[in-house]
Write a structure and sequence with these properties.
By secondary structure, the chain is of the alpha+beta class. 26% of the residues lie in helices and 19% in strands.
Length: 557
Amino acid sequence: MPQITINGTACEFSKGQTIIQAADAHGVEIPRYCFHPGLSIPANCRICLAEVSQLNPKTGKLERIPKLMPTCHTAAVDGMVVSTVSEPARENQKQVMEFLLINHPVDCPVCDQAGECTLQDYSYQHGNAQSRFQEQKIKQPKKDVGEHVLLYSDRCIMCTRCVRFTREVTGTNELMVSGRGGTESIDVFPGQALEAAGMSGNVVDLCPVGALLDKDFLFKQRVWFLKRVPSIDGITASGDNIWVEQNEGRVWRLKPRENAAINQWWMTDEVRYGWKFIHSDERLTLPTMRGAAVDGADPAGAWNAALSRADALLRGAVASRTGVALAVSPMLSCEDAFLLAHTALAYDPDAILGIGPVPVSGSDRTVGTFTISAEKAPNARGVRRTLEAVAASFPGRSSGATVHDWSALRAALAKRAGAAVILTGNYPGAWQTPELIAAVNGHPLLLLDTLRGPLCSSAEVVMPAATWLEKDGSFESARGHLQGFCRAIEPVGAARSEGQVAIDLDAIRRGVKGDHFDVASIRAEMGATAAMEKFATLCQPIDAARRATSDMQFVEI
């Protein structure tokens, strides 16, 4: 492959790559403001200028190009030698920083971007210790540009990333450059608000300074207190890769995690702000029976009482030959579905297996190369495939690999009066519709859910479940991408993952001590099943993703 040398490091590159792209591929840092790999290249910030030497085809000698070249826009050429640390390059960096800081307010202590601001970083690395500017700074107003975004115009350095995003990615064109010279600023077109086709939060991620800020995160946390954990979109079927940023057991924000094959650099506002139910006052935190708490019991005692009652109900349903039915929510992980199915079939090998309601809103929307999924469940396909694999291989099962969708499951329950139903929810909002309540009415109900709902008062046993951010697991997206995610925070209250509940319930059935939910051993067991070969092959890189590097502290859980 062709090769160039950047700051003394040999870097191979592919045809068509620019110098900065070759540097990024080899971990060589080149300062930049306007450049972003998902946007066009205007080369207007000029801080990436470098000394470039290349072979003269006439003389065969390495000759320096007389002027500094923008590394974001200059194509890499075999044999080229590039330096961003030479005296001319460093002098340019200082001059660029001096110009950018002329009108920039010195309000880092109160700026939400402090700690992840490249203007702050480059000022320290490439700037001057003192400013020569003695005149009055030009003041720009703060603007409310959309539902989720505030614009602090006096902090803007005119990199135009946000403008290019609304033009090139979403095609919505709400943002523009207004004015000229020192009064130049970013603004929305008259009569428009920044919506960006439901992806407006991405302009906050793109902004290299504190000009565009997230209203939801404003003044909530200092970013250096946050810890990052890799995860997957647990609200829709898109399978978008995300970072969960938390501090002291509380989630503060979600950010997109780059994956070129799935979500690139972006995420929807729906996913970015849809996690709030995790800390809702409506969260279930302790097991209950018939809507009443277990009196005088600590959380462990409450769980033991609830599990014992659930065990008795399931045994009674099997003894009376009404049987067991399991409805696995499409919000659950493959591992949860695997353990729940094994436990249900251990009680009743011919248990009815089905998938809970799959929410759909409208139809899929394509924004540029990004698809916003209409299906609002992260793992409908993974749950079905897992249940079918377990059913097909379970000894003594006469009904084979039959797994019902929600409509067929309701019909099956109507024909099996008195069957004990294990119903799982974990939806981010209201999901217990009159139709669903009618379907389980008259059946002994074991409910595993996260939020209070109408069924909590009528279910025989209610067990508080952990959300996807409170456990390890795997989701399969609508496009067939099987991906793992890591627990970001401890479960709220005494909530447990559905997989752990299945393990505990099976331990009571067998009269043994329950094991701890171990995602690696469960995946190994799942991968050993021939029908789940896809799981075994696609889940191999999942644990490695836990060790992905980031600019924030990474937490091993």
